C-alpha cells in the first residue's frame, strides 16, 4: 500500500513599496494621540496628518488605499488612527509613540498592499519555523514577480507532507496560522504522483509523461545562483531583495527550501555534502528571459541581486549548491586551469 502525500500551494501578495502612511492598533488612544502632538516637530506639525474615527474624513482616508473588500470596513479592524505622514519626522514620531504605548503599527503602501498585514511578516515567520516543522513536512516559499500592469512581489507557499490533509492542516494552522490553510488547498496523492506535481504538470497528469525526453531546443535563456542561510533574514533585508527583483523586466523568482529535520541531525563534516546541521534554508535565484539581447542586462541584475543578498547569507566561505551549476563559482576567467584563481569565497561540494 502506497503512503499518501499531501500537497498544497498558496499565494500571498507582498507589500514591497513602503509609503508614508501608517496604521496603528489599540489600546490607549488618548495617550498615543497626546504623544504624537507632544513629540511632533513644530516646523512640521503632525496634527493635520492624524485621522481618527471621530474625523469625518476617516473612512474615506481608509478606503482610498484599501484594494481588498475583505478589509474595506475600518469598523471590522482594531484600527484607532491613521497617520498620513507628510514629512519623515511624522514617521519617526509615530514609531516612537506607538512603541511607548504598546501599539502595533501597520504600514500601508501606495497601491500594492493587497493583504492588510502583508506577506513580508509571514515570510519572516516562515524562516523561524520552517526548519523546525515535523520531518514529514517540506514547506517551500517562493518570492516572485507577479504578472500584470502593477508589478509587485508575491510569495507562493508550496508543501509536501507524508500524511493526511487533516493532520497537515493541524500542523500548519498551529505553526503558521497566517496562511489560513483549508482542505480545498490540499491534494492527496501517492508519492509517485507527486513527481509530476513538482515538475509543474497539472494535478492528475500520468507519470508516463516523465519518460518523454525533450525533442525541441530550449526556448528560453536563464541564469541560476544559490545561497545557504544560517540566520533569519531581517525584513529590511528582504525588502532590499524585492526592490532589486523588481528591476527585472522578465520572469524572476527565488526558491527558499527549508532544511532542518533529519538534515539537522547530521554534522557538516559527517558526509561529503556539508550543508547539513546549522542551515535554516537554501535559496535558489532564478531569472528567465526570451530575448537574446536581454542576456547582458539580466546577468548584471542577477549579479546585483546576489550582491544584495551577501550580507544575509553564509560567509567565510559563502556556500552554494553544486547541482545548480553556477558557472560563476570556481570559474577561471583566463581560460587556463588555475586553482588559486578559481578559489573564490564559495564552498561547493557534491553530495
TrEMBL record:
Q: Which residues form the signal peptide?
A: 1-22
Name of the protein in question: FAD-binding PCMH-type domain-containing protein
Q: Which organism is it from?
A: Brassica carinata
Q: Does the keyword Cell division apply?
A: no
Superkingdom assignment: Eukaryota
Q: Which SUPFAM superfamilies match?
A: FAD-binding/transporter-associated domain-like
The UniProt record lists the keyword Signal: yes
Q: Which GO terms describe its molecular function?
A: flavin adenine dinucleotide binding
Q: What are the entry keywords?
A: Signal
Give the matching InterPro entries.
FAD-bd_PCMH-like_sf, FAD-bd_PCMH_sub1
